[in-house]
Amino acid sequence: MLFVNVENQPLSARSIQAEIRRYGKSSGVSESVTVSPHAFRRTFCRLKVEAGTNIFVLQRLTGHQSLEILKRYVEIYGRDLEAAIEMGFEGN
Fold it and tell me: What is the pTM of this model?
């Protein structure tokens, strides 16, 4: 058990989600930004891919059963495609 309440009882997943959302709102983060455990997980996956982590290693780290599920976390966005096109053309 990772998180406990004042009575040393485990917090429910719903309680943790609610607290994280509340902290997100009170932190002044833009309303357009989702602050949730799932958003943290997506961000972790995305940053690991951008850092060059092997996709199979990432699958193991996240515990995803299939690459299809993991792909949902690391969608390719327009900026990724632009960066891939420009890669190798710097200074030309």
Answer: 0.67
Angle formed at CA 81 by CA 78 and CA 83, multiple of 5 degrees: 110
pLDDT digits (tens, 9 = 90+) for 11-63: 998 998 999 999 888 988 877 888 988 889 888 998 898 888 998 999 999 99
**Pairs from 67-72 (Cβ < 8 Å, separation ≥ 24):** 70/45
Angstrom distances, CA of residue 20 to CA of 15, 35, 61, 73: 9, 7, 22, 20
Segment 16-24 long-range contacts (CB within 8 Å, at least 24 positions apart): none
**Ranges of each domain in the chain:** 1-34, 36-92
